[in-house]
Amino acid sequence: MKHSTRGRWACFGVAVSMLVLPRLGEAALGGTAASVAADRAALAAVHRATTTRGAYTVQEFRSDSSTVREYVSASGVVFAVVWNGRAHPDLTTLLGSYSGEYRAALRQTARTRGLRRQQVQSDGVVVEKWGHMRNLQGRAYAPALIPTGVTIDEIK
Amino acid sequence: MKSSNVGMTLLVMALVAGCGSGGSSGTGSTTTGTTSGTTGTSTGTTGTTTGTTASNVLAVTVNGSLCSGSTSGSYVNKPCVSVTICTPGTSTCQTVSDILLDTGSYGLRIFSTALTGVSLTQVASAGGGSLAECVQFGDGSALWGPVMTADVVLGGESSVQMPIQVINAGFGSPPQTCRSADASPTAAGFNGILGVGLFARDCGAGCVDAADNGMYYSCSGSSCTATAAELAKQVPNPVALLPLDNNGVIVQLPTVATNGAASAAGSLTLGIGTRSNNIPSSVTTYPADASTAEFLTTYNGTTYASFLDTGSNGLYFPATSLVSACTVSGYSAWFCPATTKSLSAVNAGYNGSPFGTIDFTIGSAVTMFNSSYMVFPALGGAMSGGFDWGLPFFLGRNVYVGIDGTGSPLGTGPYWAY
């Protein structure tokens, strides 16, 4: 399944990357490595760890309400954001330039009561939420920005 | 989602005939009587699958008489209880039904519009304001409203004074994360939530010193700002505050046929090994992580953090080649295999032991939602990152929920046992 998933996203990525290129200097998803610091400040978070995993680096920082991990590619672009904690963070900051299309897609996503997870997908970004009280979790990624060879299963 | 609500409501009513006292069927049944819990509660006159009338037993119906028809019509696998709320120190009480039984959260939360028969006062926050709370859930939904002091009666237990959240989306100025909070029972699908999971407080130590904890706010006038909240002011798991039977609960629900049922009736027993009707036997205790209440599930070769959640209406886990997300339009949140899949996973304590195999089945959500039934043991959906054992897991099992820091014959909480 991992292979078929990667294949699907790879094709999707080729189609989308020509339309949605990240603009340098924007914060968070789609932004530069430097934007990670801006996000950290906006969330009043402290840096916890930097982990290099082959083709990308994970910057982890922690606020009083959640832990956030930003995935930065070798070319210096944030291609995914993961969080967990007592609260889902304000995604306006973390989604950066994708925030608007996420909110638009969210409005189109029908509420299913009893379903305790959410997936919102737009042309450029996928946002997933799940978990339970005291450990709410989620991740957001821009399929077009995921480096070659990286699977979405690694984003966790 | 359902086209035959009227017919089904009649069917549900017929099936549960005799299973609900008059005082438990509505939301506006104000009573003025004793606060001992013998008046206006659903226990004592309710026929549950255990046949008991003990004071520590609450009736549970999955899409039955304790669930409101107006909010449960489109929402399958919803377990409901009723809870009695009294004006503190008085005998003015109100029984509210259609309260979602939730082992995935902690604390009692009821919509203000469902609390018309009692008078409650706000809990003061540090610094002179009043305490309010924003609670978020795994699906991105949220509940917002003030924290207020109430006398709470569970089953036939004595009333206990404690903070509860009174859900009111129009209260003060909610933080960004609660600006789309559910505005009504119809929006939420319930009148309230009774969180009886593994912790005694909804936030715990993480909110005692930190103002930006993401949950608690101090409101003065209409202005609300983030605040710390001491343990005694946090919304507690009501079970943890009982004088007796306070070390956890047992959720007991009957076996339901694979293709479903109109409703199911079971019980919520308060306490584990505290009296003759809650002594565990033939169960395995799975210790849970003390910060997340999670244990482990290994499925299809991968180990995930997992939890048991009556508040989730299906079994949610990552899609794989074994069962993949439904491709039928409108059903992408669910699994819909062409034939019912028999699957297996291994649950383990958070440190890896003990462990035990769980067999489960996933059927077609399309078929289920097009039937007239409302309880489905084979309902599942795709979720990345973890394994959420929702309501179907509880059907046909006795599940023990051991509260953090408390002891029982099954060990010291937090633990899940079944």
TrEMBL record, chain A:
Organism domain of life: Bacteria
InterPro entries for this protein: DUF2844
Name of the protein in its database record: DUF2844 domain-containing protein
Automatic annotation (TrEMBL), chain B:
UniProt region (Disordered), positions on chain: 24-48
Low complexity: compositionally biased ranges: 27-48
Keywords, ordered alphabetically: Signal
Signal sequence bounds: 1-19
Keyword Manganese belongs to the record: no
Domain of life assignment: Bacteria
Identification of the protein by name: DUF3443 domain-containing protein
Organism per entry: Oryzomonas sagensis
